[in-house]
Amino acid sequence: MDGLILERNEFLVLLEAARTNKIIGLDNENLIPQDQASHLAALNQGVQGLVAKELATISADETVMIEREILEFSQIVAFPDVAFITTRETPDTGGQLFLHYVNQLGVVEQTLPTEHQHRLAFLPDMLVLFDRLAFLLEVQPSKAFEASVRLSQNEFLAIKGLAEDRADAEAFKRLTAAGLEQQAAQSLIEAIQAPIFSASLAIVRCEDTEIVDAINPAILQGPSSAWAIQLDETNPEVFEVQAIDQAWLREHIQRWFEQLATAAL
After folding, report:
1. What distance in Å separates the CA atoms of residue 70 and residue 56, rounded to the nearest whole number?
2. Which of 52, 171, 236, 260 has the greatest number of C-beta atoms within 10 Å?
3. Nearest to 259 by CA among 237, 227, 229, 233
């Protein structure tokens, strides 16, 4: 799955071919030049870049003919039925962004090797996508314990703040009072204080280029446990915090997608 790397100006040609100026998951205000002259110059440079890569040709009457693969990329990336926006933060390397787009034409992964490059790759099917997302968010292979707790958003954020401020005793007291066993409470505090990585997985249902529904769990990998934090389905003021493993995560990525896809029917 090496994919195709396009420079920013070449990527703008894809947007022009799809007749859109918005891509889910990207900073669209800084994606496209604001003034028309700069935008036109960027498109001209992009066409020349695609021609040099043998991904487009220019006919005698100056008509630009873009390769079929590029047109398919443009239609999937510009108009997904469902998109996955995955951000992963690690203390040493910072943030990584992975974007996946799904519609009836196929499944495409987009990453940004540099600030002005776009890597695009086709994935064979949805099962490969689910496996890919589980790999990108790889948590420890087995649970240390079974644990879950429901907390109001305010209470969770207060406990998180206490843990970050090293007020361990108070954070521990409030977690156990909410129903977590002692080992789980201590492990969650450690995960907050010393994360191996933290991540957000936004699964969004789209109509045209607008997001109309979303599921957005957070994933936290600590030294001895991994956790999913997500809004309770029946009460948006409450977080459900659950210890997870790789099998749980893979299963729920597919379940969250199917939940959104079913809602669209």
Report:
1. 9
2. 171
3. 233
Structure-derived torsion over alpha carbons of residues 79, 98, 73, 214, reported in degrees to the nearest 10: -20
The rounded radius of gyration (Å) of the Cα atoms in the chain is: 22
State the DSSP string of 166-179.
T-HHHHHHHHHHHT
Long-range contacts formed by 44-49: CB under 8 A, 24+ apart: 45/9, 46/7, 46/9, 46/10, 46/11, 46/12, 46/13, 47/13, 49/6, 49/7, 49/9, 49/10
- Give me the helices (H) in the chain, please: 8-18, 28-31, 36-52, 68-78, 126-136, 153-164, 168-178, 182-193, 246-263
* Phi-psi region at 146: left, alpha or beta (left = phi > 0; alpha = psi -120 to 50): beta
pLDDT surpasses 80 at 26: yes
Comparing CA positions, the residue from 220, 242, 238, 233 lying closest to residue 260 is 233
Residue 142: band (very low, low, confident or very high) from pLDDT cuts 50, 70, 90 = low
List the structure tokens of 53. 């890569």
Instruction: List the structure tokens of 19.
Output: 């007749």
